[in-house]
Design brief:
The complex is a heterotrimer of chains A (559), B (311) and C (186). By secondary structure, chain A is an all-alpha fold. Chain A is built from 18 helices and no strands. Chain A is globular, with a radius of gyration of 23 Å. The relative contact order of chain A is 0.10. The mean pLDDT of chain A is 94. The relative contact order of chain B is 0.12. In chain B, α1 packs antiparallel against α2, α4 crosses α6 and α5 crosses α6. In chain B, β11 and β12 form a beta hairpin. Chain B has 2 domains: 190 residues, Cupredoxins -  blue copper proteins (Immunoglobulin-like), CATH 2.60.40; 88 residues, Immunoglobulin-like, CATH 2.60.40.420. Chain C is mostly helical and 186 residues long. In chain C, 82% of the residues lie in helices and 0% in strands. In chain C, α3 packs antiparallel against α6. The model of chain C has no long low-confidence stretch (mean pLDDT 91). The chains are: A mainly alpha (559), B alpha+beta (311), C mainly alpha (186). At the A-C interface, α5, α6 and α7 of A face α1 and α5 of C.
Chain lengths: 559, 311, 186
């Protein structure tokens, strides 16, 4: 039983950068940690932009018949809100954390393709710029984030907005595909000796599985976008009914991307939850293999459910029923995870620091979103609820109550590692409670609005009984969320300046990123502890109770 | 739950969906309570009070994994069975060869409503006889729209180039509200639907009256209005049966005075509101394709007198 | 069994692009059947000429394979010559594509012509773009091969580029079969 500590190899000399520090060293950086941080910063910026867009929408909807925004303004804003939150906030947040954490978690020096890594980030910046440039060149796109044809064709969307949208997303999507390949090769090839694929942290596992989804979800998006641009700019007829094209083809191709995309947006968050709940319960994850395996099932199934977005197109009952069955089936591996996370807490010694508060709330909020999701899988219910505020409630519960709460948990958890400072617990708890209350105020009532018959994507609504009150509650909730976000930003600033020093491993966690300083040195590790199980630092601290004692627990024998 | 809720079904089809939905919400509620109680219990019971030895390190339990995989799978399979049944009841098949009783063509941002077997054309307000299935063919003249009247049942997309025929029905007479439910551009919010369900006798009476050419009022103002309608640009978009105006660009106005609303629901149909609308439609439905014609107040009054007499 | 990182990365990229091309091909086939036949394709396309140019592209896969074999045997100069031949054959293919395109455009078959034009130009256009990018990469490889020692391409680079090049060739074989051979046999 050797205790040889390992030094991760550098596979190639990294390019020299003449500037030792300062802004240029960041712009020219190919270091995964710097690139990861830049992803997080840009996400925070666009979160503010997307948040302001949502506040503008909620002001307009606070009462029936408001004149705060014109319909044209409102329609651009809801389109940009959705597009921003998905492509410029959630995706970069998850990619940023993945980029920062994966090499550290596997004991590597950097990612497999550091320069490609930088290119991906700058493609995101470029794409975001293109998208927002539309505001000053004739108007932003106003067709919704999934831009159905033929509304998105030049006959009906006469400004250049939709073309900017398509080009911006092509840029961002290309960067995402490159990062997926980068992360997958990193995970497959650069793991430190002893870390078999059955021993990687679940976050790493989720990122790997996610890579496969991205690999096959980006092609339909790219195909859709270039076909739409062909129609708009070159007179092609892919989606124009008048030209013999098929608007329904757009839906098939877009949702073949769009549905896997929502799993792309949750898998890394599930990975974060799978790291955080065990550490704060002081127990290993319950059912590692099942949490991992169920993610693979979801990744495969995610391509087989997409047409549940098309139940109202009228494609026939056999078609609808097949996608209904697949959509119900995908709920099973999702539920398995929830039960495993709860079982991890069971019998533990739970410390409710801010990461654990967000992770625990995640379990409940994501379950709500999951249950409403199951109702959508049941075709006739979808026939009533699709395109109403019930959908808006559903996806905000899974994307905000799910992904974003998971990301907040991860932010409080890994901020100390990234910066060397702990975020304030006091401010963290304020952020948590304001977010929890604001979120539920904003979105729970939207279930009821949908069930009362309120369609989505409307700049105003008739004065039906109760609609004004419910919308007002939702608007108030949105402002509570705005205050919560300000608390978060304040916490970030204050803690960076004079936060408590974190040390290497403030949470007494067990995975390799905690085996180096906070923040890590440029080369990540001076030496990597031996890896003979899933929790190397636990094994190091508990030689007589090491996970490795039982090969099943350690993920196989040492190889 | 209100005047436009799927939980106030007015047809067997909508009832089937409502029942399925309520059952599912109850089951969902139980699952939610189960999960939440477990989370809350674990959070309280296993909260760490003080520093001490680590808890028992448990790695998993195969039996539990099987249990909490199989049980939800079984439940979901049962729900799938209910789904199939409700699909058949709420969306009964229509024979494709028979011609439709009603054709609805969706436009930005109004509904063209035709009764082909009787030669009737109207807009935005749908009349139906109760007690029998109606074959409805849904089309679109421009972008994708969606015809949704929650009390009657499912919504259905109106996709250009892809007409769909399906069956709707209503059990009892009344007014049922609906709306377009697929984002279709600037005025998606005001593309509302009114369904007036009538006894078969009342419906037939309505249908014959709609098929007849209206006799406008003989007042001086109304006659002037009739002339203005033909000489101004109105007739380049709107049709009125029995006149030279036959354009199909905008809603047919033949029996405008009978309708309950204007502008697909944005205003109630009263002479005052019609006056407001004609003075500047863009003030009420900005972005709609009816421009501000800058009519003089006299012209507006004449047109109102004419149009409000078209019963 | 570890696959070297550059090769693994290229393989994953190829898998993704393969799906992308499948979707464009699917759209072509869908519109061909939906619009009721291959009349425009029959009238306007010339399978024989395009077939001849296709042989150049297929030949270029052979030459790049030969380049790899020379490199494995240690004859780097000969390998570079085979790669030059690959690039030349690729350029001839692109010239053939260009000629076909200009003939079609001259006859009024454009992107806007109808469903055939829309799908044909999109599919062959993206394929041509992939060929062009491949030629650029191969040209850079040739340039680096003849430069001083410090910037010679690393061993394994040719193998990675070959993987991409063979992929581009296979995509063309599928496209050629779907668009041109279908006409011959339909």
């Amino acid at each position: 039983m050797s205790d040889t500590a390992l030094v991760p190899e550098s596979h190639e000399a990294l390019p020299r950068i003449s500037a030792a520090g300062g802004l240029l060293s960041w712009i020219a950086s190919v270091d995964h940690k710097q690139i990861g941080i830049m992803y997080l910063l840009i996400s925070l910026f666009f979160f503010g932009v997307g948040g302001i867009e949502s506040l503008l929408m909620r002001i307009q909807l606070a009462q029936p018949g408001e004149h705060f925004l014109s319909p044209q303004e409102y329609n651009q804003i809801f389109t940009m809100h959705g597009t921003t939150m998905i492509f410029l906030v959630v995706m970069p947040l998850l990619i940023g954390f993945s980029t920062y954490l994966v090499p550290l978690m596997i004991g590597a020096r950097d990612m497999a393709f550091p320069r490609l890594n930088a290119l991906s980030f700058w493609l995101l910046v470029f794409g975001g710029f293109l998208l927002y440039y539309s505001f000053i060149d004739g108007g932003a796109p106003a067709t919704g984030w999934f831009s159905y044809a033929p509304l998105s064709e030049s006959a009906y969307s006469t400004s250049k907005g939709v073309s900017y949208w398509a080009l911006g997303l092509l840029a961002v999507g290309t960067g995402t595909l490159a990062t997926a390949i980068n992360l997958m090769v990193t995970i497959i090839n650069l793991r430190v000796k002893g870390m078999t694929l059955r021993r990687v942290p679940l976050f790493v596992w989720m990122v790997l599985v996610n890579g496969f989804i991205i690999l096959f979800a980006m092609p339909p998006l790219n195909a859709s976008l270039i076909m739409l641009l062909g129609d708009r700019l070159l007179g092609a007829h892919f989606f124009t009914a008048a030209g013999g094209g098929s608007p329904i083809l757009w839906q098939h191709y877009f949702w073949a991307f769009g549905h896997p995309e929502v799993y792309i947006m949750i898998l890394p968050a599930w990975g974060m939850i799978s790291e955080i709940i065990p550490v704060f319960s002081r127990k290993p994850i319950f059912g590692y293999e099942f949490v991992a395996g169920s993610s693979v099932a979801i990744a495969v199934l995610s391509f087989a459910v997409y047409a549940h977005h098309m139940f109202v197109v009228g494609l026939g009952h056999p078609f609808d029923a097949a996608f209904s069955l697949a959509s119900l089936t995908i709920a099973v591996p999702t539920g398995v995870k929830i039960f495993n996370w709860i079982a991890t807490m069971w019998g533990g010694k739970i410390r409710f620091k801010t990461p654990m508060l967000f992770a625990t709330a995640f379990l409940v909020l994501f379950t709500i979103g999951g249950i409403s999701g199951v109702t959508f899988a049941m075709v006739p219910i979808d026939w009533q609820t699709t395109d109403t505020y019930y959908v808006v409630a559903h996806f905000h519960y899974v994307l905000f109550g799910g992904t974003l709460f998971g990301v907040f948990a991860g932010l409080y958890y890994w901020f100390p590692k990234i910066t060397g400072k702990l975020l304030s617990e006091r401010l963290g708890k304020w952020h948590f409670w304001l977010t929890l209350i604001g979120f539920n105020l904003t979105f729970f009532v939207q279930h009821l609005l949908g069930l009362a018959g309120m369609a989505r994507r409307v700049y105003t609504y008739p004065n039906f009984p109760g609609w004004g009150d419910m919308n007002l509650i939702s608007t108030v909730g949105a402002f509570v969320l705005a205050i919560a976000t300000l608390v978060l930003v304040w916490n970030l600033i204050v803690s960076l300046r004079r936060g408590q020093s974190a040390g290497d491993n403030p949470w007494e966690a067990w995975t390799l990123e905690w085996a180096t300083s906070s923040p890590p040195p440029v080369h990540n590790f001076d030496s990597v502890p031996p890896v003979r199980g899933r929790r190397p630092l636990w094994d190091l601290a508990h030689p007589d109770q090491a996970d490795e004692m039982s090969p099943a627990r350690a993920g196989g024998t040492n190889a | 739950m209100g005047p436009i809720s799927p939980f106030d079904p007015a047809s067997g089809q909508a009832l089937a969906i409502s029942n399925l939905f309520i059952l599912t919400l109850v089951i969902g509620g139980v699952v939610f309570l189960l999960v939440t109680s477990l989370v809350v219990y674990a959070s309280i019971r296993y909260r760490s009070r003080q520093v001490g030895p680590d808890p028992k390190q448990v790695f998993g339990n195969r039996r539990m994994e099987i249990a909490w995989t199989a049980a939800p799978a079984g439940l979901l399979l049962v729900l799938f069975g209910f789904t199939l049944h409700a699909m058949a009841v709420s969306d009964p098949p229509v024979s494709p060869s028979q011609s439709p009783d009603m054709v609805i063509v969706a436009h930005q941002w109004w509904w063209e409503v035709r009764y082909p077997q009787d030669g009737v054309v109207t807009a935005n307000e749908v009349h139906l006889p109760v007690g029998r299935p109606i074959r409805l063919r849904l089309e679109s003249a421009d972008v994708i729209h969606d015809f949704w009247v929650p009390a009657l049942g499912r919504k259905m997309d109106a996709t250009p180039g892809h007409p769909v025929t399906y069956s709707i029905s209503v059990d009892k007479p009344g007014l049922y509200l609906g709306t377009c439910a697929e984002f279709c551009g600037a005025q998606h919010a005001w593309m509302r639907i009114r369904v007036v369900a009538q006894s078969p006798a009342d419906f037939n009476r309505w249908l014959s009256q709609q098929a007849a050419v209206p006799t406008p009022a003989k007042t001086e103002a109304a006659s002037r209005g009739a002339q203005l309608f033909q000489s101004l640009t109105c007739s380049s978009c709107h049709a009125i049966a029995g006149t030279a105006a036959q354009a199909q660009v905008g809603p047919d106005l033949t029996h405008l005075a009978d309708r309950q609303t204007l502008g697909a629901g944005v205003l109630d149909n009263t002479p005052d509101n019609l006056k407001r609308w004609l003075t500047n439609p863009q003030a009420y439905k900005p972005g709609s394709y009816m421009p501000n014609l800058h009519l003089s107040p006299d012209q507006v009054d004449a047109l109102v007198a004419y149009l409000e007499s078209l019963k | 069994m570890k696959v070297e990182s550059n090769k693994l990365g290229m393989a994953l990229f190829v898998a993704s692009e393969a799906f992308f091309f499948s979707l464009l091909i699917l759209a072509y086939l869908y519109f061909q059947t939906a619009s009721g036949g291959t009349r425009v394709a029959h009238n306007q396309l010339d399978p024989l000429t395009t077939g001849a140019f296709s042989l150049c592209l297929i030949g270029s896969s052979l030459t790049i394979w030969l380049a790899g074999r020379s490199a494995r045997q240690g004859s780097n100069q000969r390998a570079a010559m085979w790669v030059i031949l690959t690039v030349l054959l690729g350029l001839v293919f692109l010239a053939g594509q260009g000629m076909e395109w200009s003939r079609l455009l001259g006859s009024g078959v454009t992107m806007a012509q109808g469903l055939f034009g829309t799908t044909f130009f999109t599919l062959t256009g993206f394929h041509g773009l992939h060929v062009l990018i491949g030629l650029l990469a191969l040209s850079i490889f040739i340039g680096l091969s003849f430069s001083s020692h410090g910037s010679a391409p690393k061993p394994g680079t040719l193998e990675v580029l070959s993987l991409y090049w063979h992929f581009v060739d296979v995509v063309w074989i599928v496209i050629f079969s779907v668009i041109y051979l279908r006409l011959v046999f339909a």
